[in-house]
Specification:
- There is one protein chain.
- This protein has about 500 residues and is of the alpha+beta class.
- It folds into 3 domains: about 1-75, Uridine Diphospho-n-acetylenolpyruvylglucosamine Reductase, domain 2 (2-Layer Sandwich), CATH 3.30.43.10; about 80-235, 2-Layer Sandwich (Uridine Diphospho-n-acetylenolpyruvylglucosamine Reductase, domain 3), CATH 3.30.465; about 240-450, 3-Layer(aba) Sandwich (Vanillyl-alcohol Oxidase, Chain A, domain 3), CATH 3.40.462.40.
- Helix content is about 35%, strand content about 20%.
- It is built from 13 helices and 22 strands.
- The strands form 6 sheets. The protein has a 7-stranded antiparallel sheet, with helices on both faces. The chain has a 5-stranded antiparallel sheet with strand order 5-6-14-8-9.
- The structure holds flavin-adenine dinucleotide.
- The site of flavin-adenine dinucleotide (FAD) has 38 residues, from β3, α4, β14 and α10.
Length: about 500
Amino acid sequence: MQTKTQLEDLQNYLSDASNMPGGHAEKLFVPENQDEVADILREANEKRIPVTVSGARTGTVGGAVPFGGWVISLEKLNKIGSIDKANLHAVVEPGVVLADLQKAVEAEGLFYPPDPTEWSCQIGGTVATNASGARSFKYGATREFVTGLKLVLPNGEKLSLQRGSSIATDGGPIELNTDSGNTITAKIPTYERPKVSKNVSGFYNAQPLDAIDCFIGSEGTLGVITEIELSLLPKPEGFFSGIVFFPKNEDLLAFVEAAKQLSFGTRTSVSAGENADRDVRVPLDATLIEYFDERALDFISEKFPETPTGMAGAIFFEQETTAATEDKLFEAWNDLLERHNADIDASWFTTTDQDREKMRAFRHALPVSVNERVVRNKQKKIGTDMAVPDENFPGFLRFYKETLDASGIDYVIFGHIGDCHLHANLLPKTDEEAERSRHLYGRFVAQAIMLGGTVSAEHGIGKLKSKYLYVMMGERYLNEMAELKKAFDPNGILGRGNMFGPELLK
Ligand SMILES: Cc1cc2nc3c(=O)[nH]c(=O)nc-3n(C[C@H](O)[C@H](O)[C@H](O)COP(=O)(O)OP(=O)(O)OC[C@H]3O[C@@H](n4cnc5c(N)ncnc54)[C@H](O)[C@@H]3O)c2cc1C
């Protein structure tokens, strides 16, 4: 196992995609197996040394940024153990890069849907943050695909979990046996979960609670994930994708609503006739519905100059197809687009993998270009990650736009409109604007909470957003979260500062 203490060796491990400043650490460990992870944690726990787990550091909330102590990087635990085509199942180490897993799975004619846009992240990081992204509209977040986990707890004990093997019901605690036979009992926090389709604010506590779900999305605070079992899907026969442009925002929003209703109708067999769009008897079932506002299109045209101008916004959608359904689906989408006044001539459609990749690149280019510009101009970026319930989404989007337009601060809005979850990126140019942006961020948080939403739908809380988790949860529920953490990490060494401050762990 490599260990490093020189600043130049540690430098890369002191920040993540949040650009959070001030990261520092005394020592970096690069273990190559679970035993080595256990040794490091046992020693750290005995000496009460804080430990930060580091994946690929693509996280945007400072979760992997250390403030003192040791760093464990999982980059050398990077083997794909098996991909079992017959049972649609894979076993991987946490340091496997998502792009590598996607390639390996595709080569077997299989499909792993979680797509958090940034494919350089590690599978361990995606499990620790319960990453989602565009395709969660149809398939849900990473959690849906995790069937087993091996972990090392902060005291160095190993824990193996299979989905279904330990379930807490009726608000009772979870009880787990470590590999060495010790029993851990942990009370589950009692907060109500917001009625949104994506939410990673705080520990997962849905009832009944499968113990494995406590660890998924726990942001490196409860244990170090050292092996992951995943379920896979057969690779869809084909995809039909489009990036479609709308001259008017009202038309775009009506199109999204219709596409969502038709897709939900397919999934839940809602009877046709509940609204006009459901009357259309078509098997629409979008896998993703992504939004770009006018400013986002402007931004993206730096990298994609072919982007049409003068549009109010665009939608990227994707739909699985088979040879038998393809024609009917093209017709159905085309019909929907025409009815909602999309500029079909200016829009792009494809059924080939190659062009679909280009569309993914178009979508990915946006957050990347924003981040590049921020770094280039030494600007700041303040990015929102809230989601609200369906019925409150149009009002929330209006609130975003009106407030931001009135502020005069540069911004773009884009993201997972299918899940009522958009990212507003505020791009202040001066200190004064940065101050006002932070103030606006606080107003957006308050509004999202008031509308029954969540402060973080997918990026997590990390260190940057802990004060907003406080606003959402209040002291009582943060204390309940701290109690859960103490059951696994009584000395509070792991992922210190993620989600809530160490003062709650005393
Ligand atoms: C351009 C861009 C676009 C993005 N788009 C999305 C998106 O659409 N959806 C989305 O969900 N995210 C998105 N992200 C955020 C990020 O990619 C995800 O959060 C990703 O899951 C982080 O993985 P990572 O390996 O980089 O983890 P890191 O950033 O290294 O770590 C994230 C957290 O997980 C913990 N952790 C990492 N590995 C382990 C482990 N093995 N055991 C225990 N804890 C661990 C860390 O301590 C930290 O708290 C985006 C990021 C960028 C830069």
